[in-house]
Amino acid sequence: MQVAILTFDGFNELDSFIASAILNRMRGRGWEVQITCPGASVTSMNGVTVLAQQQLEFANQADIVLFGSGIYTRDIAADDTILERLQLDPQRQVIGAQCSGTLLLAKLDLLQGLPACTDLTTKPWVIEAGVDVLDQPLVASGNVASAGGCLASSYLAAWMIAKTAGIDAAIAAIDYVAPTGEKQQQVDATLRVINPYL
Amino acid sequence: MQVAILTFDGFNELDSFIASAILNRMRGRGWEVQITCPGASVTSMNGVTVLAQQQLEFANQADIVLFGSGIYTRDIAADDTILERLQLDPQRQVIGAQCSGTLLLAKLDLLQGLPACTDLTTKPWVIEAGVDVLDQPLVASGNVASAGGCLASSYLAAWMIAKTAGIDAAIAAIDYVAPTGEKQQQVDATLRVINPYL
Asked: Which domains are delineated in chain B?
């Protein structure tokens, strides 16, 4: 399984790295999860520079594509030189967005009239793009999901694993990363959020 | 407030970046949170290369020091060329460790007989170092804390903020990053974990 974590300048570390690290729990089963960027490197909203593992076009062939979030997403959503490089297809790809990444889902017409989740800052822009925004951590329909609030990234990653490799694999991944002494309650919370969308 | 996130080759992205991103919620109040490394860059356990924002010696003057976790921590704990660069002081610094980072706390004699938290993989090595390991997400005594299970990083960051800037600042940071629709329950869970150690 090839997984593209779309990560842009100004990215929020929580939104790219919580999901990528949890999805990487599947490495032993052959998954390749890669930070995918418009250029050679990206610098986060907090000044952390990360080298790209793949360029944007990698996403077009990936099995799973996750849009991270960041402080410049509105600019990216208006930048055709970036958007034109993405040719995604929810029929053959599992696609998800975290927080402001939902704005890119909307802009690329991947929501197709469905309601979405996003963070409170991005909410007015997503509504402006004609999308209903839900007050919940995650929503999905078919192969497309969106999540809101940075720490909901773990739910989005779990949904992606459950959707493609089964619920037991998702439970194992969440159990591993959950706080010591709270593993069962973290698994239960995750199942409550993702089960309606499997 | 100067904050050093100690990050080594083989690091776990969850353990360095959840904490650093939450601590960075304090940027508006002058906090400077920086990925602090032994060299110019580090590459994660999943192949992600990050440029260092500071070198290890920065930690010695920082107000807050957080030991991240990773797959090579046992090697680092045996490498005096790295450990000798760290001269930390729990009297004037707030110090915390996540997962295998607890092994470095033990090795640097910063636990001083206290029990600690760590992840299940690291647990036998921490016990071997003579430390009692607790089955809970976080424990602290005075200025030194340890946390176990990657997602417990949010508790460790919240404890550090509460300890140095007050509980209201910690609540605001966690509220911001919590999943949409679950903000109050995330704040409540955090307070249950950190309040006994404030």
From this structure: 2-197 (3.40.50.880)
